[in-house]
Design brief:
The complex is a heterodimer of chains A (111) and B (113). Chain A contains no helices and 11 strands. Chain A is mainly beta and 111 residues long. In chain A, strands 2, 4, 5, 9, 10 and 11 form a 6-stranded mixed sheet that branches. Chain A has a 5-stranded antiparallel sheet with strand order 1-3-8-7-6, with no helix packed on it. The chains are: A mainly beta (111), B mainly beta (113).
């Protein structure tokens, strides 16, 4: 079992719809959770961070964390073609300075 | 804004050459990281450093070494480049706070021929 798992996609979403991305992790003691967006040929860009159970909203993005079920999700509302990218989930374990990254979910927003 | 810069966007080297990739961050971050990213394999950690002159191996350190002589600068060295080291190399940095969010540089696309 991978430490951080994501569905590789592609997740195809019509323009204006909600894109829902999921990520599960294996280390129950994980503390911090991040979502990165990566356009093709570019480096990952941090878009959301979440540290406690519940929802966190930032513009059209909402991150949801459920530590009991060990999953974190990202919702993208009113999806735009410019949201087409690969979204990486990253988790910081209880100990150490490293992040563990999932393989990423590719999102395609169709006009 | 956090800024992480890398010395080259594109680099072409020959097999057997010694290659230096440099990374500089301007946010006084304690931690710096080198990853490589390949299609289907995701981000893989090569080395990281949590302080000047300190380094730790990541998941795939073979064939690489690193140097951190100053807090803002972290160098990745390919001692003798091989074709299987053709990849996108990404540098990242993070602060010493508990959250540890990482900020990435633009990446260096290295081709070894």
């Amino acid at each position: 079992q991978k430490e951080v798992e994501q569905n590789s996609g592609p997740l195809s979403v019509p323009e204006g719809a909600i894109a829902s991305l999921n990520c599960t992790y294996s280390d129950r003691g994980s503390q911090s959770f991040f979502w990165y967006r990566q356009y093709s040929g570019k480096s990952p860009e941090l878009i959301m961070s979440i540290y406690s159970n519940g929802d966190k909203e930032d513009g059209r993005f909402t991150a949801q964390l459920n530590k009991a079920s060990q999953y974190v999700s990202l919702l993208i509302r009113d999806s735009q073609p410019s949201d087409s990218a690969t979204y990486l989930c990253a988790v910081k374990k209880a100990a150490g300075n490293k992040l563990t990254f999932g393989g990423g979910t590719r999102v395609l927003v169709k006009p | 804004d956090v800024k992480v810069t890398q010395s080259s966007r594109y680099l072409v080297k020959r097999t057997g050459e010694k290659v230096f990739l440099e990374c500089v961050q301007d946010m006084d971050h304690e931690n710096m990281f080198w990853y490589r990213q390949d299609p289907g394999l995701g981000l893989r950690l090569i080395y990281f450093s949590y302080d000047v002159k300190m380094k730790e191996k990541g998941d795939i350190p073979e064939g690489y070494s690193v140097s951190r002589e100053k807090k803002e600068r972290f160098s990745l060295i390919l001692e003798s480049a091989s074709t299987n080291q053709t990849s996108m190399y990404l540098c990242a940095s993070s602060s010493g706070t508990i959250q540890r969010e990482q900020y990435f540089g633009p990446g260096t696309r290295l081709t070894v021929t």
